[in-house]
Amino acid sequence: MALQSLDIVRRSATTFRSPSIGQVPEVAKLIDVTTCIGCKACQAACMEWNDVRDKVGMNRGVYDNPPDLTASSWTVMRYTEHKEDGSLQWLIRKDGCMHCQDPGCLKACPAPGAIIQYANGIVDFQEENCIGCGYCITGCPFDIPRLSPKDSKVYKCTLCSDRVAVGMEPACIKACPTGALQFGTKRQMLGYAEERIVDLKRRGFTKAGLYDPQGVGGTHVMYVLHHADRPGLYNGLASDPGISPLVSLWKSYTKPIAAAALGVVALGAFFHYIVAGPNEVSEEAEREVEKEEDGT
Amino acid sequence: MIRNPKDLERHTASERVNHWIVAICFVLIALSGLAFFHPFFWPLTQLFGGGVWTRIVHPYTGLLLVIFFISMFVRFRGLNRMTPADWEWLRRVREVAGGDDSTMPPQGKFNGGQKVMFWSITTCLLLMVLTGLVMWRAYFTFPVTLVRLAAVVHAAVGALAIIIIMGHIYLAIWTRGTISAMVYGTVSAAWARQHHETWYHQMRGKVRS
After folding, report:
1. d(Cα B208, Cα B198) in Å, to the nearest integer?
2. pTM for this structure?
3. CB–CB of B151 and A273 under 8 A?
4. Are residues A125 and A234 in the same domain?
């Protein structure tokens, strides 16, 4: 929902700047993978607050349930069994929208105002403006948005923008029993993450670190990882995500250049007609043909 | 109806109907495609009943276009084989642009430029339908890198196809006496002799190689 108390700084398919003089602190969700116990309370809270219920699926012999994000499951726990130095590590990552500072979905979207970014950094889909083309799926570096077969609109985590707008924390944060999920200003979260990383390093996780990928301008959902040098261990978390050069080529170059080319060709044709005149059969040639044909 | 008994039949009624179905589809697909092309063109969605309808209508129009284009391709393929005279015509195309093609080498039913347009629009439409299917989320899910590549190609080739068709329409208007070929099916004898001399002689039963 576009709430008046949240300023919109970016709108999809809009070439002018949105009102952006207000200064609002950026918010962030911090997911401390190292203290997550995989209870899925966040998943349940997300369904409850947002009133979405996925179909009951099949047990696939693993804890991942549902097996993937869907239009009704905006966050999903990903479980990875990782063996290292003869010990087993259970790496559990809460997957969902990362709320990129430079969102690929918003860049790709052709419908004005179907995807917006608030001044606090939250990237929100406005389903009433969504046309269901799925370009956002093409633009996303994290494979997050899902097209609903029910209404052909795209859905994803809103970072509970409706709750945040009235000073509450997202539903998943409220439900987390271990404090693995934290929410606050991005600056606070960076500070908190730093403490956690110091603690982890002291415990022997020398490669512990923060996941706040700069390829997308940083994110408003960040991870603390024990193996920050290998994010791919956490169910294929991208190690250096960014908007695909193909998407930039498509939206930033091909389209504006081609649109200008269309205008140039239309004007060029018109002025060619004005300058060179029409390509006509001269009256003389016409008479000649008539004479010739009458003669035979 | 033939206004002048000396006029030459250039396109049969069935060819004309086929052409205009393709033309109507092309206008619809170009306008609906441009709506997603750049925010500048977004108001075009109003022609189709809003953004959602535009998104629904666009790919089906494309399928219809391709089906009827295939039929047109089969009809005209043989007449569009490139000959040495066509290459000669293309080398000297600048002379035509000046507004007079009476000095050009004699051309058959289609000149070198028309043949190039035929093959380039065929290539464009082939690329458009393949990339369009890859992007059609209502029915297909392809690997995301493929969809991204398809999106770039679809946008670039789509614009190119529109430019080619803008040229096609302009040249039909610019070369006076041409529109009647696709409306009534006939052209004047003088038109035929000036622009397509070889074809003119074929039609008059005096074939010259």
Report:
1. 7
2. 0.92
3. no
4. yes
